[in-house]
Automatic annotation (TrEMBL):
Span of domain PurM-like C-terminal: 151-302
Transmembrane segments: none
Family statement drawn from the similarity comment of this UniProt entry: Belongs to the HypE family.
Cited InterPro entries: HypE (IPR011854), PurM-like_C_dom (IPR010918), PurM-like_C_sf (IPR036676), PurM-like_N (IPR016188), PurM-like_N_sf (IPR036921)
Upper lineage: Bacteria, Bacillati, Bacillota, Clostridia, Eubacteriales
Gene3D superfamilies with a match to the protein in the record: PurM-like C-terminal domain, PurM-like, N-terminal domain
Name of the protein in question: AIR synthase family protein
PANTHER family: HYDROGENASE EXPRESSION_FORMATION PROTEIN HYPE (PTHR30303:SF4), HYDROGENASE ISOENZYMES FORMATION PROTEIN HYPE (PTHR30303)
CDD domains: PurM-like1 (cd06061)
Residues in PurM-like N-terminal domain copies: 33-137
Length: 331
């Protein structure tokens, strides 16, 4: 099988064939495109999500905190705690473990999220450090926003710039292959993208504004996130390539490595659908968060408009991050 997320047909089959228990107090249940489950507790509800870091070597502690807390934020609720599992190969040093935990501690401090516990193990089962976290959030009953809430006619909004996470990883882990196309200033900019991968603020603001669905953009990029949202909501979408917010640095890196920025891992960007996208964009910009309306939700079929030509968006395959090494070999 190919490296990366399981393809969506196989994943959907696994999920559907293993749902023996169906509890009434689980309001939002697992499914393709739904990153969080929501459990009702009286007047409150608990939001939970889990994800590992497998495609990066630098900043893995920081990334692990934010990709998990971003899932909670995409429900419009506050993340309150995180559980951390570290699986490390035999050659790992204590200093490396300390550095990862220091990153995790620093990022959780910024978000006011407590490290609740976890597990750390040296194992022959992995050949590089793996960090996996489970994040837990809390909100008033009925307040959590699901990925599956997108409605026909909604505007589609994305925050910040796409593929920031992928660009940061590429510059950190494959610097020798891309240094000729970037200035030192651009290299610094790319490395600093990791400082902007939290979507906690926009998640909170959008939740208060009132939106129909939210989904943080991770593996598979914006097109993968759109397909997941549409699949979960049983709708379609029409989006425009020329409206996608992509920095010059990201375009240079993707061009050099022959990567599609629309299918490149994009933690730091939130996908939001709402009846009044322009008003939401204004609100976010007032709070210092760039945002763009890139299209709208339709009745069926996902479509990307590129140079006035319609292309149907297929289910996401593995993220461009996992193709970098084989593409480098062809340079």
């Amino acid at each position: 099988m190919k490296v990366g997320k399981l393809n969506w047909d196989d994943l959907n089959e696994l999920i559907k064939e293993n749902k023996s228990v169906n509890r009434d107090d689980v309001r939002v249940k697992n499914g393709v495109g739904e990153d969080c489950s929501v459990i009702e507790y009286g007047e409150y509800e608990c939001v939970v999500s889990t994800d590992p870091i497998t495609g990066a070597e630098s900043n893995i502690g920081r990334l692990a905190v934010h990709i998990n807390c971003n899932d909670i934020a995409s429900c419009g609720v506050e993340p309150v705690g995180i559980l951390v599992t570290i699986l490390a190969p035999e050659h790992t040093t204590m200093e490396e473990l300390k550095n990862v935990m220091k990153e995790i501690d620093e990022e959780t401090k910024k978000l006011n999220v407590e490290i609740l516990g976890g597990h750390t193990e040296i194992t022959k089962a992995v050949n590089k450090l793996i960090v996996s976290c489970t994040a837990i959030g809390k909100g008033k009953k009925g307040s959590a926003v699901a990925t599956s809430g997108a409605k026909e006619g909604d505007d589609i909004v994305v925050t910040k710039s796409l593929a920031m996470e992928g660009t940061s990883i590429a510059v950190n882990d494959y610097y020798e292959q891309i240094k000729e196309v970037l200035s030192e200033t651009e290299v610094t900019e790319a490395k600093e993208y990791v400082d902007s991968i939290s979507v906690a603020l926009e998640g909170s603001l959008a939740g208060e504004f009132g939106v129909n669905s939210m989904h943080d953009i991770t593996e598979g990029g914006v097109l993968g996130a759109l397909w997941e949202m549409a699949e979960a909501s049983k709708v379609g979408f029409k989006v425009y390539e020329d409206k996608m917010p992509i920095t010059i640095v990201t375009r240079k890196v993707c061009s050099k490595l022959n990567l599609d920025p629309l299918r490149f891992i994009s933690s730091g960007s939130m996908l939001i659908t709402t009846r009044n996208g322009e008003e939401l964009v204004k609100l976010l910009q007032q709070k210092g968060i760039n945002a763009s309306v890139i299209g709208n939700i339709t009745k069926s079929k996902g479509v990307l408009i590129k140079s006035n030509i319609e292309y149907e968006v297929e289910p996401p395959e593995r993220d461009e991050l996992f193709t970098i090494e084989e593409k480098i070999n062809k340079l």
